[in-house]
Structure formats: C-alpha cells, structure tokens
Design goal:
This protein has twelve helices and nine strands. By secondary structure, it is α/β, with parallel strands linked by helices. The chain has two domains: about 5-130 and about 290-305, Rossmann fold; about 135-290, Rossmann fold (3-Layer(aba) Sandwich). Helix 5 (about 110-120) links the parallel strand 3 and strand 4. Bound molecules: N-carbamoyl-L-aspartate (NCD).
C-alpha cells in the first residue's frame, strides 16, 4: 500500500500525491496492528529538534517506539552550533552515520531540505522556520478525513497567523491536493499569508477568499485555528500590535456556527480559543493530537519498513 514511500525524504506536503496521502490515511487506520509486528525493530531514528518542541517530538518518539524502533534525541541549539551552516552539515553527517532516519526541526527555512541533500538516510521535516510542517498537515487532513469522511466539498476557515505559521501554510498547501468547496483565509491584516503562498494556492487552483470570521462562521464545516507565532516576529512591537486580536469563544460558536462544525488547532494554543470550547462538541484539536501517533507510525513504517509491512 505504501511502497512508494520507502526511503523517501518528507520535506513538504506537496512532495506527495493525493493518492499517496489517502493510502497513508488508510494505513494509519490500522497502524495499531503494526505494534505486534514491530516493523522498526533494530532501527534507530534520530530526532534532531533544534527548536523547542514537546508534542511533535514526543509524538514521533511514541510512534517510533510503538513500532519497535528506538530514538536518538538531540534537542536545543546549545547541543551544537547551528548558527554556522558548516556545523549543521557536520551534525547531519553524524546523525546520518548513527541512525536509519532523521527527523529534523529547525528555525531556519530550508534546513530540512539541506539535511536531505547531505544525508543518505531519509529525512523527515518536523518544521523548518515558517515554511513547512508536512507531518502536521498530514495529521490535519487525516483528522478531517476521519471526522467528515473526506476533505472534498467542505467549507474550511483557516484563522490566525497565516504569515509566520508553518502549520497553517502547510495545511493550506495540503488542501490544494483535495477539492474543498471553499477555503476562507481569516487573519489580521498584518498576518495575511505571504505572497508566495497565495500564489501557490492560486496556481494550484484552490478556491479561496480572504474574509472576516463573523462573516463566514455560519458556513464553515471546519475552523482551523492557529496561535500567533510570537517567536518569529522580526520586531516585538509588531507582535504587540496583533496580540489578542482574535479569539474563538463558545458563545460565538453556539450563536453562529453549524452544529457539526469542528475546530482544529495544531497546538500549542495560547489564548485564541476560549477554554470552554474544550468541553464542547466543536472541539476536535485533542482528537487531532491523538491521531498524530498512528499517522506518524504509518509514515515511518512506510519510509523505513521492510517488505511486507502492509501485506
Ligand atoms: C506547530 C509548529 O511547531 O509549527 N506546532 C506543532 O508542531 N504541533 C504550531 C505552533 O507552534 O504554533
């Protein structure tokens, strides 16, 4: 089912076809069965998280270990001097020598691609700067597929920091592989998507419009919320101007939204969602986080698994 994934680098969600993603989602549905077969037995996956991360790192760690593999974990920039390109290259060579696959998160855009060019082992991008976060986009699309039976025909709002958020951009790029009815981009003016992302969405034929939340809330099937990426603002005063500029409350949802609306969020959330939403039927972000493990298990088994993993 996932033969085409074997040995592949995972840099951008657009490295995949719709068919491959659908195969992956199907595999994720039965990922728990893999525990018994331990397809990663004897394999080591390096988790090189040069940028802070708890959930993504733990979710990968959980996936690798449940498949019978083990992890080599490097965290924080202090472990190496990544400010110098050459040192990153040497670190990658070392990880390549010690492990069978490398998951990398880095604050520099293009770091994962750079690592993939150096390493012989497959490289999985766990987030590079504001650019790509392909496994998060896979989880988002998988969650929607589980909740609605598919992505086609849905009306989806993407709210928040569309400028600096790599999860939001990757999700939007991933949506271009499907046929949603309409995608609304909802952000404060300073946090509109970057031109190159908007252009890619147009070229790929996604039906999208920029809009205000209250204008479109009643139409939405999915509301994908993201936090403001404070750490990526070049100027702290720019952050001060937009902080707290949007918040999804339970009253808002109960007053305007469809009963079946589902709220997604890549997490961590800060103050952009009223905690009362957590206990409501609109909440789907904890389901989404939970689905991260089987999705990453399916992906790792596809990339690293030997023959017959899926037969
Ligand atoms: C996202 C990230 O790191 O890009 N988090 C995640 O991987 N779950 C989103 C974020 O940090 O806001």
């Amino acid at each position: 089912m996932l033969e085409s994934l074997r040995g592949r680098d995972v840099i951008s969600i657009l490295d995949f076809t719709r068919g491959e993603l659908e195969g992956l989602f199907e595999a994720a549905d039965s990922a728990w069965k893999l525990i018994e077969y331990r397809p990663l037995r004897g394999r080591l996956v390096a988790l090189a998280f040069f940028e802070p991360s708890t959930r993504t790192r733990m979710s990968f760690e959980s996936a690798v270990k449940r498949l019978g593999g083990d992890t080599l974990v490097v965290t924080g920039e202090e472990a190496i001097s990544v400010a110098k390109g050459e040192n990153l290259a040497d670190t990658i060579r070392m990880l390549d020598a010690y492990s069978d696959a490398i998951v990398i998160r880095h604050r520099f855009e293009g770091a994962a691609l750079y690592a993939a060019e150096i390493a012989e082992a497959p490289v999985i991008n766990g987030g590079d700067g504001r650019q790509h976060h392909p496994t998060q986009a896979m989880i988002d699309l998988y969650t929607i597929t589980k909740l609605f039976g598919g992505v086609d025909g849905l009306t989806i709002g993407v709210l928040g920091d569309l400028r600096y958020g790599r999860a939001a951009s990757s999700f939007l790029l991933g949506l271009t592989l499907f046929k949603p009815k309409m995608v609304y981009l909802i952000s404060p003016p300073q946090l509109r998507p970057r031109e190159e992302v908007l252009e890619e969405l147009s070229v790929r034929g996604l039906r999208f419009k920029e809009a205000g939340l209250m204008e479109v809330l009643a139409e939405l099937d999915v509301l994908y919320v993201t936090r403001i990426q404070r750490e990526r603002f070049p100027d702290p005063s720019e952050y001060e101007r937009v902080r707290g500029s949007y918040r999804v409350t339970l009253d808002m949802l109960e007053g305007r939204a469809k009963k079946g609306l589902k709220v997604l969020h890549p997490l961590p959330k800060v103050d952009e969602i009223d905690p009362r939403v957590d206990e409501s039927p609109f909440q789907a972000y904890f389901i989404q986080a939970r689905l991260g493990v089987p999705l990453r298990m399916a992906l790792l088994a596809g990339v690293l698994g030997g023959d017959g993993v899926w037969s």
